[in-house]
Design a protein that fits this description.
The chain has 89 residues and is α+β, with helices and mostly antiparallel strands. Helix content is 18%, strand content 29%. It has one domain.
């Protein structure tokens, strides 16, 4: 069976979604620890992923990996640090 992985990288700069990278920790805190919902007090969204979600953040980058490949998860942990939300074994 062929595995498909989704890696979504959100890069935040002053010209995009956030005024500055200092807003990223606040927005990341709106993602629930399991990675299946987002709620900022105004907007609330529940998400059903095709596989396990894994959220990582570092400076002005949030990375979402949806999948189960441990080598990808380990590589993201090496680059980004420990995941802050999503499925943890």
């Amino acid at each position: 069976m062929k595995k498909i992985a989704l890696v979504l990288i959100l890069l935040f700069t002053g010209a995009s979604l956030f005024g500055c990278s200092s807003e990223i920790p606040e927005d990341a805190s709106y993602i629930d620890s399991g990675g299946s919902s987002y709620s900022n007090g105004k907007l609330s969204v529940n998400i059903s992923w095709a596989s396990f979600p894994h959220f990582f953040k570092n400076e002005n980058i949030i990375v979402l990996y949806v999948g189960e490949d441990s080598s990808i998860i380990e590589a993201l942990e090496d680059i980004m640090g420990e995941q802050f939300a999503g499925y943890k074994e």
